[in-house]
Amino acid sequence: MEEYSIVGKRISKVDAQSKALGEAKYAIDIYLPGMLHGKVLRSIHPHARILRIDTEKAKRLRGVKTVITAEDLPDIKYGNWLVDMRIFARGKVRYIGEPVAAVAAVDEDTASEALELITVEYEELPAVFDPEQAMLPGAPILHEDLKHYETRFPKKEGSMFGNVNYNAIIQQGDIETGFANSDMIFEDTFRTPKSHASYLEPHTSVAAFDSEGRVTVWTTTQRPHLNQVIVSSLLGLQVSKIRVIPCHVGGGYGGKTRTLSEPIAVALAQRANVPVRVAFSREEEFISTTTRHSAITKIKTGVKRDGTLVACRMDLVFDTGAYAQTINAAWLGALTAVGPYRIPHVKVEVFGVYTNKTMSGAFRGYGTPQVNFARESQLDKIAHDLNIDPVEIRLKNCFKKGDVQPTGHKLVSVNIEKTIIEAAEKIGWKKSQKNKNRAFGIACGFTPCGGLATSCIVRVNQDGTAVVNSGAVDMGQGLKTALSQIVGEELGINFEDITLISGDTDSTYFDVGIFSDRGTHTTGLAAKMAAMDAKSQIFDLAAEELEANPDELYLHDGKIFVKGVPKPLIPLKDLLSRSVFKKGRPIIGRASINPDTPPMDIKYVQGATSKFPSTYTFATAAVEVEVDRDTGKPTVIKAVGVNDCGTVINPDGAEGQIDGGMVTGLGFGLFEEMLIENGQVLNPNFLEYRIPTALDMPVLSRAIVESYDENGPFGAKGVGNSPVINMAPAIANAIYGAVGVRIKELPITPEKILESLEERRR
Amino acid sequence: MEEYSIVGKRISKVDAQSKALGEAKYAIDIYLPGMLHGKVLRSIHPHARILRIDTEKAKRLRGVKTVITAEDLPDIKYGNWLVDMRIFARGKVRYIGEPVAAVAAVDEDTASEALELITVEYEELPAVFDPEQAMLPGAPILHEDLKHYETRFPKKEGSMFGNVNYNAIIQQGDIETGFANSDMIFEDTFRTPKSHASYLEPHTSVAAFDSEGRVTVWTTTQRPHLNQVIVSSLLGLQVSKIRVIPCHVGGGYGGKTRTLSEPIAVALAQRANVPVRVAFSREEEFISTTTRHSAITKIKTGVKRDGTLVACRMDLVFDTGAYAQTINAAWLGALTAVGPYRIPHVKVEVFGVYTNKTMSGAFRGYGTPQVNFARESQLDKIAHDLNIDPVEIRLKNCFKKGDVQPTGHKLVSVNIEKTIIEAAEKIGWKKSQKNKNRAFGIACGFTPCGGLATSCIVRVNQDGTAVVNSGAVDMGQGLKTALSQIVGEELGINFEDITLISGDTDSTYFDVGIFSDRGTHTTGLAAKMAAMDAKSQIFDLAAEELEANPDELYLHDGKIFVKGVPKPLIPLKDLLSRSVFKKGRPIIGRASINPDTPPMDIKYVQGATSKFPSTYTFATAAVEVEVDRDTGKPTVIKAVGVNDCGTVINPDGAEGQIDGGMVTGLGFGLFEEMLIENGQVLNPNFLEYRIPTALDMPVLSRAIVESYDENGPFGAKGVGNSPVINMAPAIANAIYGAVGVRIKELPITPEKILESLEERRR
Hints:
The structure is a homodimer.
Chain A: H1 16-20, E1 36-42, E2 48-54, H2 56-60, E3 64-69, E4 92-93, E5 99-105, H3 108-116, E6 119-124, H4 131-135, E7 164-172, H5 175-180, E8 184-192, E9 204-209, E10 215-219, H6 224-235, E11 242-246, H7 261-272, E12 276-279, H8 282-288, E13 291-292, E14 294-303, E15 309-321, H9 328-336, E16 345-354, E17 360-361, H10 368-386, H11 390-397, H12 416-427, E18 438-449, E19 454-460, E20 466-470, H13 479-491, E21 498-502, H14 519-546, E22 553-556, E23 559-562, E24 570-571, H15 572-581, E25 587-593, H16 602-605, E26 615-627, E27 634-644, H17 651-670, E28 676-677, E29 680-681, E30 699-705, H18 727-739, H19 750-761
Parallel strand pairs in A: 1-12, 10-11, 13-17, 15-16, 20-21, 27-30
Antiparallel strand pairs in A: 1-5, 2-4, 2-6, 3-5, 7-16, 8-14, 9-10, 9-12, 14-15, 18-26, 19-20, 19-25, 22-23, 23-24, 26-27, 28-29
Helix pairs in contact in A: 6-7, 9-10, 10-18, 13-14, 17-18
């Protein structure tokens, strides 16, 4: 990485100071004169017909300015992949917490009081909470009209039926032949719970119309431009009349990829004709935003006695809740299910299934943590049964560069082998355990990275400084810093000379959102391409002004050089200062890209090639765990994360992502679970919903191994998702090593360990 | 114009409602928490050496947060054409009103009190106020170091000397031969005063730094991007770290093309570390902002007995005041001096001269009103003396399409002939006057239009609506509306589907500023080109998706058609909605242009061709005036303005410009004059500085004649400047017709008429 001046350098986040000083504005900091406060009335039944909503009393309460229900809005559904949800329930409610009405009032208390004055007459319907139950004939049906729902992927005949909203199959080789050729076959079922992204900042939006009928929405979001489009379609406003200003994001992790508070705020502001803020409470976050899909993973694996994987069949059920808003998580789960391994015979089938619970969606890892827990747990079991070192069995089967996925995707950057070796080394894998209740565990995997539409503009000013306008949002992960590094590197100017304008839909251009590790890899690619475009305009100008050959020019340290000539031809600012009054046009580089997106359909899998995801990142985690046999309590003592994320743009940022991802994985493995009884979330707060705290932290260490992805800027891939996926199986595997019990259902609580230990004793 | 759907339509200004409702934000409406108020200490001497500035007492005043002088800032001068001015005087002051120091305090009163506590020790120097005096040997020299000043035009040896800061010569044919071949020769001298643009809103800026060291400046300006560049260079800040947000402009007329309050606000905010507002008073506007150059125009014209113009020599002296900030006004005056006439032998020489008065600069008409008053007055005299109808003499000599200017500029759109004919018709020229004190007057002329660098981005959204990001500012003239019409026409979508984002340097791209009629013509051209670029991307996408030939497609009414097929191929929104998730990139059209700019040098005139100005607009005014022989009071009864401004984008807007321009010309002709005694402005307020009021209004009518300018969007030219230039000479000519006296010095006051009448009687 020595060839780069800015890429690969440890540069502080550009917004570090404003956040540290408390100057960074979050959506809740937006306070407009005369602003009203919006509150949402939510369903108290998991499944019920709405017979009547009486808002008259609420409307008469002093201080209430407007009350709206579905009846006041166009009957339009939304959803990026499957169009199944409305702002407010219409006809029936499908989960406890579903929005039924909203109120805007002069203060929050008045708004809350008004909610209590709204009468909703329901006719309760039978509900279903378990996805396997929901797939059975005779189960209560959530969406009677599902068959006619619009999808953004080609519909397959019969793939949407009953409560099944999604079905895809990935195949390679012949699974039955594979099992026939195997020496041993392993069959297991694993379960992972519904969990919440648990960002600190709840969904908050402030909407204000101006006298020209244009609305500005300040919000917390990972996807301002898609919010703009969705608010437009839901409320019948032109896209051009909506401005979305994303404030600093107080955590997202995938949970801010929905459009939830925005259309409510806009609809209320439109009717009240004054600005309206809608700020969700923590409870609302838990009961009515997206969560990680709970999943049931059945896995049947055939192996040779030497540990060679021969066949793998996986059957996945993803519980989408009442609305399948992010059903592509199920697709991505299927895509990564059999793992980063060479397996000749593969069949993966995934079902997305409606249940009467809050919708599932994106959450760091995005479909993969569920399947990775299953597969990596089973692989550990296979290794133990075959008496092969768990490290060895992974090294023996893992992908190499150039391998082709069952989907036909050729992998251009793969260094998983080195992540396994380094993780084992760093945890001290070879050291034998003296303490009998303590053991190492290891797991590896891969996650999809990048793709979908984005754009970027890079202007170069008269003084040689640059401004980057990117539609992508920095949700705290340091994207603004990374994009600035990429542009600075490409332009050959100093990091300090770059300013990044991000997110505001008035000043930036379409980006589909920051999720699926597409920030650095895809929006970074657009930033690099826009910078290249600007650079070529600069070289043309230099060539014209100074009679040089544009092909022989390069930029470094803010100066233009001719290749092979050590003395600079001209400082960039001297060239560009002329462009204001004399020759030369304003330098405006542009890039607008849309890496191919496949239809989510079996046909795709049976031969089509595609760039979505653009690439994959690879990771291994190794942990050392001690189990208290008396209490069952597992303690993760050390954890090591090693990632192959291509060229690292900013090591501080990448390492922060690995550490953070491992902690998310730790929570997924040991603590986090939304407890739901008859559709009611029992622990909708941070007292009862346990995320890891400082006291739960192992000694964390991390490393990055090199690879170069030719479709990423300077070879970069993403690094947000893959560190999450290995912690749970590595911990589970270590627990097995320590005390000999294998827990197949997350989270791995002391109770489950104790119970298993007791079972073993019996 | 029937071929267009939106261009040529009477569409209300997009910001009409927000202005009518009082919602439009002007710079003075920006109020930031903790904001300080800045005040400027100004020179009390027209010319003096600064010996010492003592700010200690001021700094100690309670409530004062910072005091700055030139010593606190980098020693950097600025100026777009001639780099001769600083934010604060350094070493010496050159006019009464020049900034010497500034204070930021908790309120305006405290700031004013602090100014009184600053002691400046001056050593008075001899001053010069008359430009002809200033050109004489031995005159006090304002800029001793002038020779070494940087210029943005190539310096000619010996063209800057003494107080002469600018000299240019335009020649055609041989002037002496011309006079030798003439039957009669006329020689006259005309004088026009220093006058003020008299916009209602004084210069106001609010500057606020954020914790990352980036500053936002809310201001009232015609050129946000150039302000950004100039604040950058003056204060040593990177361009990318400055955001200029132009608020609604409360009138500009050229007077908001300087950078005056901005750097003071930024410098104070930087030191005080809190936001600072600097708002000029009306008096400050009069004594320390730009004014129209006062000018002395000597004109010697040779004609044939039949009225054919043979030779014209003009010698112009433009009084630049103490700083030649907009010396190109002198150049443009020279460029248009001999008028829109075919004259074989021409010599124009112009001098820009320093005097100890506030700087001169741009003001509607931009150099031409001064010379047009002279030439059109003299032409009337020639017509009378030759007994030729003033209308006929103009028609006989005026330019036709394809004629070439003395500068070598070929005129591609000329319809002045028709403006003369229509103006004469509309005023009722042929009707004989019965009342002896009443007469008609006519004058015509042309003004430069367009040129210099600009850029534009046009994005087309998923619903087929469009957003235009333009660096150009709407200063009330309706530019946002016009640009939206241009883009809508080019894209074939509805006007209502377009939103224009203008001016904010974070969300728009370089434009040099709105002056010299470059709004519709040049920034409009960029908008059209960006829309064309977007359209070609749309057609490529349509071709790819629908197997059409992109060359055969066109857009109309938001739908894509194949040429010759009446049924639309696909609605635009249906095509573009796919581009989010499926094929197709975000549609982002871009244009970045810089119509050639000439060096302001005799060499240019002697052969170089150039596109600057891009083109010319032509206009005629005809008036009917009655003079009260007892009081000398002239009353303009009727006034007609007819313009050739190419294709009209918005007739309401164009007609408003013509009416407004005629009123500005009326004030220039009859009322406005900054009375200056020993460098002191005696009438720095609207009580004593008289602009036309409702009571002074004639019956106004106006018309537009067609032409098509191939370098403008849909053939459009500008229309802001040319209506201004003809009123003063038309009125002067009418007064001559009415009472037989010819006033050669503006404004034409009753006193001057009375005095001339008395002189004639003697």
